[in-house]
Structures
1.
Amino acid sequence: MYAIPFLDIPPLLHAGGTVRLPGSKSISNRVLLLAGLSEGTTTVHDLLDSDDTQVMLTALRTLGCHIEADGSSWRITGLGGRLTVREASLFLGNAGTAMRPLTAALAMLAATQGGRFELSGVPRMHERPIADLVDALRPLGCRIDYLGHAGFPPLRLLPGSSNLDLSVPIRVRGDVSSQFLTALLLALPLLTAEQTAIIDIEGELISKPYIEITLNLLARFGIAVQREGWQRFVIPAGSRYVSPGAIHVEGDASSASYFIALGALAATDAPVRIEGVGTDSIQGDIRFIDAAEAMGARVTGGPGWIEVSRGRWPLTAIDIDCNAIPDAAMTLAVMALYADGTSRLRNIASWRVKETDRIAAMATELRKLGAGVVEGPDFIEITPPLRWTPAAIHTYDDHRVAMCFSLAAFNPLAVPAPAAPVSVRILDPKCVAKTFPDYFETLFSVARTRSDWIPVITIDGPTASGKGTLACAVAEALGYQVLDSGVLYRATALAAIRSAVDADDEGALAALAEALDLRFESGAVLLDGIEVTALLRHENVGTLASKISAWPAVRQALLQLQRSFRRLPGLVADGRDMGTAIFPDADLKIYLTASADARARRRHQQLEVAGVSTTLESLLAGLKERDARDQNRAVSPLKPAADAVLLDNSALSIESTVGAVLNCWSQRGPFA
Ligand code: DC
């Protein structure tokens, strides 16, 4: 309901534990295209589920491939090189790994079999060059029109000469993006049943490891490309796609770079273990390990796993040619903030034509943190900050900018340590969905910090004031955890009913509270492994909860459990004493009220919707009785904390109540 405009990451101190990485983007989209062009069905295991792969799956479906999800696998039935759909408009988002190869494959199919296709994307995609690929395809007899600016998508592919001529070698530039060569290599087997295809590279080929991935996957689909150095690639006559039947996608090595860096920065006790990609990876970015080691990381690994811990500290500044690891090298730029001098990343001209101009983006955002940055056409130089400044990091719709800057939150570890550790605000954090939708959740599962650095917003108030709804909405907007403390008292009450413990037996009730086996799973509450979400809302459970919550021993028994919800990146806690007893140091305390009449009316409506029949009068009476009990008990009576913001929402919609709280937060939070 509430989009997250930003995510604030508090200063972080430690890392350790195991992460599993999503599938590689580069492998996923190549495999999907190859499966889509092959004859028969290919089962793809561990495919990356992200914006860029969704774009490719949708395009293949539009083109007539039969695609079904089967648990964590996908079954793709390919076209076998024959067009079944001859006219289509394909929207390819900002996925270069879809735009380039589909342009090549569909240009060849449109020419030889009479198709008409339009390929477009987001505005940034229309600024990413494609002329070199178009110029390589046109001499074969492909017909390609630019629909916007010459040299850039959107494109129209039209019927051309039905016999594309491979007698002359295809020439393509290799020094702008290796994706043009990849696109040709992936598509040319459509034409090589009877003729040999030869590709000659003009200029120095960049990002060679990505070409290795392409060649490796082509081999899995029956195409043995012969290569002469990095200058000439030959696909012999008689080559045609043969599906391997099943294929496994390894974890993304570029995504691994954030966790390798994490280990190098902050794994001082246990290592950070990465599963899904290992030192046997076919992805070039796995060589990021060498660069991380050069800076000081201690790395071990094997097939499908890597373990990283801190070695030298501070990190050693490096001067390194990043041509072979262009994507992962962005992570080095942030590691450089923790180095003992100036680091220089060279040979990264390709950064300028990626999701955004990454050299400009990294320079601008690193400077915001206080770093000294020099940028050139194909290099960047980074000197660690003398003074760290809290920064709102613009992410340019670039997943990698968002992911690598999260590592700046480890600034308390910098040498010398900043006098005041700073939070890092990541703007538009959802852009990580391009390759790693759960990136931040994964990061927070292995990152740790002082609990008093984790922000807390408390929302206290009487029953039916709308605290729960408000807390959930605020937590969703900020990407925070949520604690509905009433559930803990209700669960204790339910456990008491079940084991026939008397409401006056303080000791037995406290023992039940202490031993509660409660779990929270995607919105559901499980008590002793059984779902009790709806049961907990019953009036008799609520009334008993109100009674037993007056016992000091019960409140004491639930104290630690409540405080344990203070987890990264922050918490919104609702209840009666969140701001007074449980989180007295909370960063923002809201005391939410509404008139008894307004609350009784809301509760009445809720119950009606749930099909429970009651009268407004009995609800109002029960509510007043509960208010009196909650307000007059000896321990933690319901009352606003001295520093609470009082908010009466009798006449406010839920949206404006949420807006009011977020507004208070923007004036109180780390970026006030
Ligand atoms: O918020 P709720 O209606 O789910 O809470 C049920 C009862 O639990 C409430 O009447 C009083 C008690 N409670 C409490 O004493 N302290 C809290 N922090 C939360 C709830």
Note: The pocket of 2'-deoxycytidine-5'-monophosphate is lined by residues 463, 485-486, 489-490, 542, 545-546, 549, 575-577, 626, 630 (CB under 6 Å).
2.
Amino acid sequence: MWSNRWLFVLAAAGSAVGLGNLWRFPYITGENGGGAFVLIYLICIALVGIPIMMAEVLIGREGRQSPVNSMRSLTQQHHRHRAWVLVGWMGVVAGFLILSFYAVIAGWALKYVFSMAGGGFAGASGDQAVAAFDQFLGSPWEMLLWHTLFMALVVFIISRGVVAGLETAVRWLMPLLFVLLAVLVGYGVTSGGFAQGVDFMFGLEWGKLTGAGLFDALGHAFFTLSLGMGAIMAYGAYVPSSVSITNTVVTIAVLDTLVALAAGLAIFPVVFANGLEPGQGPGLMFVTVPLAFGQMPLGALFGTLFFLLVGFAAITSAISLTEPALAYFVEQRNVKRSKAAAGIGVVCWLLGVGTVLSFNEWADVHLLGQMTFFDLLDYFTQNILLPLGGLFIALFAAYALPKAVLKHQLGIKTALSEKGWLLLAGVVAPLGVLAVFLVTIIGLDNIRAWLS
Ligand code: PFF
């Protein structure tokens, strides 16, 4: 069990804050045209993410086991349908799929630790930064090397049991990451592109929002808060009963959102000051951040540190991606922790090779329309698996668990707050997910056409 409230906050924040905030949020914001997308994302965090995160923590704390077994014992105890256990299994699968590409991108960050340390970006131009990244993407063997290194680190850490290392990592490195982000935002202010960057991120141009953008905003809200696959549920199993779930969850969600917004405010000014393309895709952070540090005094030092911290943020998230599967194997199958960790590592590593290749050798292999292997994994996990998982988790918490359990877990004392929570978790959040699915299926343009 986490020894105190802060330990859980730190672990959950370590899970939430990661590549999703620093790498993915800026680049999908760029691809989706900025402001309107950001607003939808914020709404998804508040109305869908927070209630579902509360549901995950409370199910985990009530079940006190791995997500699969927590769902199993709660359904048995309260005489619910066995099918609810599938939610736990979906999470295990999602964890494997996500880790497989997460480790590849985290490998990019490790590579950039060394690139920055080498000082190669001092005074670089936008074109040079783009070319350096493209060259890296073009070398599958090099990518494979960093991907392997990252995966090995994760396996090493999780096979030793996580809490001790996690706590130190998050307690010291996360604040340091915030400081460096602040330095980058400060640089953005002086870069000459700040006003344009802010305008891009917060200017509401509804015309730029597409159905795909709406779908991405929802999926990203799940991804960035680590929701819908049991990671937070698995951590919830270790939360002492004295901790307030509501306060904790709101704290984590706010923190996570601030980091994402700061990353955007660090990156977009650089994009506009250097005439780069905001919608250039997954390379965005790897082009803009070296560029910014390259133009600063002590930039090589700060830049090295920055990518090191990105790597750490990625490790604490990757650890949580494995926790639902790892906890299950250890408690149910009596497998040794180190064996289970190695098994997870090998499977995810193998799948990850597909992602490595989709940036070079397989860049022209398209599945389901225009998607590469990586695009497909990313889309299937974030836009479909996580929201579906989250939908069922919310429904389970709101309707399958007895009200007494909810009240006890959430410390609800008044009928009004009980109603309020049930409204959020049982109606608003599920309808939010369903509405976005529906709009995606029908097509936002068709809906606009009918409305006008
Ligand atoms: N929340 C992490 C990030 O933003 O990078 C990614 C993640 C971790 C997603 C754990 C899902 C998960 F279960």
Note: Residues 299-332 form the longest helix (34 residues).
